[in-house]
Amino acid sequence: MDHFNYRDGVLYAEQTSLAVLANVHGTPLYVYSRATIERHWHAFNNAAGSRDHLVCYAVKANSNLAVLNVLARLGSGFDIVSGGELARVLEAGGDPAKVVFSGVGKTRAEISEALQAGIYCFNVESEPELERISDIAVSLNKVAPISLRINPDIDAKTHPYISTGLKENKFGIPFERALACYQHAAQLPGITIHGVDCHIGSQLTELAPFIEAVDKLLALIDALAKVGITIKHLDVGGGLGVTYDNEHPPEPAAYAQVLNERLGERDLTLLFEPGRAIMANAGVLLTGVEYLKVGESKNFALVDAAMNDLIRPSLYGAWQSIVPVVANSQAVMREYDVVGPVCETGDFLGKSRQLAIAPGDVLAVRSAGAYGFVMSSNYNSRPRAAEVMVDGEQHVVVRERESRQSLWAGEQLLPGDVDAD
Ligand SMILES: Cc1ncc(COP(=O)(O)O)c(C=O)c1O
Ligand SMILES: N[C@@H](CCCC[NH3+])C(=O)O
């Protein structure tokens, strides 16, 4: 069942009309569906069959506390990339013993916080980071569980900005260094080796690059066994794509099942780090139409959401579906560029969209639950949008719209009187 769907020309999130939410809470407004988040998480969690596994939701995709709390209640693990994300997971009731810590630039303070919290594993992205983690663990009288994030040099066939598994990308340890690096890790006093990790990119729509990467890592795991290093888990990262337009990525269940099968008889726990596949289609961004500028060569629909609210179209040229939340049978169908009020030519949510709309109508930008609110900013002194979670017949404001004053909290005027001559 789709938890966002049209009934009688009105778009619903579960049982709640999105037009009603826009009316009550104003726009721009992010709306998430709890039922969809849960359904997507279960799709991953059920797919590994009887193999030991852990779904570590990638917090960066959407870090709202209510989202994290929904997942924590399901028993989810979490993939974090900063001390801030660790703090959010703990605040939302997540279990630190199910947290993996990725990221190329972990600071001393972040490493020490994660050790004190007792996380499950550090996904180590460089040799100097390995040394740093060992030193800090020794100083705290602890032993740090680690995986090395291996960069397998595989083309994920996705947008270059979100490809992470190629040699020229900053992520992970080169495959050729992996064996030596594990052997060195085995000698370090503050380190215990747990796993092997990779993450080759985001919005992958084919299975082949995942399989290629996993096969490479399994060969490494077998080579490590031969030199006496036992690997307990394989973390395949995130990256499974979703349907924004007419892409046909594999379903989470099929994806997880294929990877699980590659592991064969090996005694390995399987870790997944999905972000987008859980959240993208569990959320929409609602925006109101302010003006229509109908011109000779181009029509613009000026809406009240902008690149500061949803930057994916501007940053990656990403395409997301834009639909009216209530069909307007009176309006003329035209082709519009849907643009925001920010003073940048690159400020658009969608280009060349066929829409029958009038000022005052509300539009939904679909598939906006992942990398939406989390990438928003206050550019042009625009307060960040509110966020609402629909939960069956209820809905809860899970983040208030920012106030004007909060935008300058922490700023100060210079001391003394201003000379007014
Ligand atoms: C290390 C790591 N894990 C997981 C993810 C989540 O990726 P996605 O949202 O594509 O599933 C990312 C982001 O690309 C990442 O960098
Ligand atoms: N922010 C990206 C995904 C980045 C994945 C994180 N490594 C997007 O919106 O598609």
UniProtKB/TrEMBL annotation:
Classification via InterPro entries: Ala_racemase/Decarboxylase_C (IPR009006), DAP_deCOOHase_LysA (IPR002986), De-COase2_C (IPR022643), De-COase2_CS (IPR022657), De-COase2_N (IPR022644), De-COase2_pyr-phos_BS (IPR022653), Orn/DAP/Arg_de-COase (IPR000183), PLP-binding_barrel (IPR029066)
EC number: 4.1.1.20
Annotated residues for binding of pyridoxal 5'-phosphate: G239, E273, P274, G275, R276, Y371
Keyword annotations: Amino-acid biosynthesis, Decarboxylase, Lyase, Lysine biosynthesis, Pyridoxal phosphate
GO molecular function, one term: diaminopimelate decarboxylase activity
Enzyme class: lyase
Family affiliation: Belongs to the Orn/Lys/Arg decarboxylase class-II family. LysA subfamily.
Function: Specifically catalyzes the decarboxylation of meso-diaminopimelate (meso-DAP) to L-lysine.
Subunit structure: Homodimer.
HAMAP family with a match to the protein in the record: LysA
Protein name, per record: Diaminopimelate decarboxylase
Natural source organism: Celerinatantimonas yamalensis
Lineage summary: Bacteria, Pseudomonadati, Pseudomonadota, Gammaproteobacteria, Celerinatantimonadaceae
